[in-house]
Amino acid sequence: MKGVSFLATVAILALASSFVSAYDPSPLQDFCVAINDIKSGVFVNGKFCKDPTMVSANDFFFSGLNIPGNTGNKVGSNVTLVNVDKLAGLNTLGISLARLDFAPYGLNPPHTHPRGTELFVVIEGTFLVGFVTSNPNKLFTKVLNKGDVFVFPIGLIHFQFNIGETVGLAFAGLSSQNPGVITIANAVFGSVPPINPDVLIKAFQLDKNVVEYLQKAFAPN
């Protein structure tokens, strides 16, 4: 019986270990540079790996985060993301970076990153930031100044609002090579094809005319 119990324990631990590694496996080598040519690669963590003998320093290099993003849009903000699609050497390393530029009173509207936690660092400006938990939807919010840091847990709706009269600048680290982003208003009212208005009317308790207006306002160009 002891032998059976020991084997059962080992089996459970092995199964649990497989679940963990299936969710977010650690790299099994020093690096795994992304490559689009599948004929000369090996499939690992969602991207094919370049032959290590063909890897160069440029595979680990990105230039341009010193350039401010264009904030001349409706929300007054711009995100320059450096993920695995921009920096191939990030493949399997579980990290990415973003520069966030804000006009005065610019907003990075409520959104989520389905695959990554975000660490937000203020370089210039004053920001009202916050995130909302899963049910019962508690809000955690804070005013940040230059040098302050705030973390947004993976998958939770969050926002950043420059409440100052000057431009704002921040950098964010994300715990995924491809964290993804879902901007709530765009996803709900600007999906392709559109969500049936009756669904939105009932879900948000809005008048039909309001829903139709919002769907037109957020419809992709």
From TrEMBL:
Residues engaged in binding Mn(2+): H111, H113, E118, H158
Q: What InterPro entries does the record point to?
A: Cupin_1, Germin, Germin_Mn-BS, RmlC-like_jellyroll, RmlC_Cupin_sf
Q: Where does oxalate bind?
A: N108, H113, E118
A single Gene Ontology CC term = apoplast
Answer yes or no on keyword Lipid biosynthesis: no
User: By its UniProt entry, which Pfam families does this protein fall under?
Assistant: Cupin_1
Q: Where is the signal peptide?
A: 1-22
Single GO term (MF): manganese ion binding
* Family in the record: Belongs to the germin family.
This protein's name: Germin-like protein
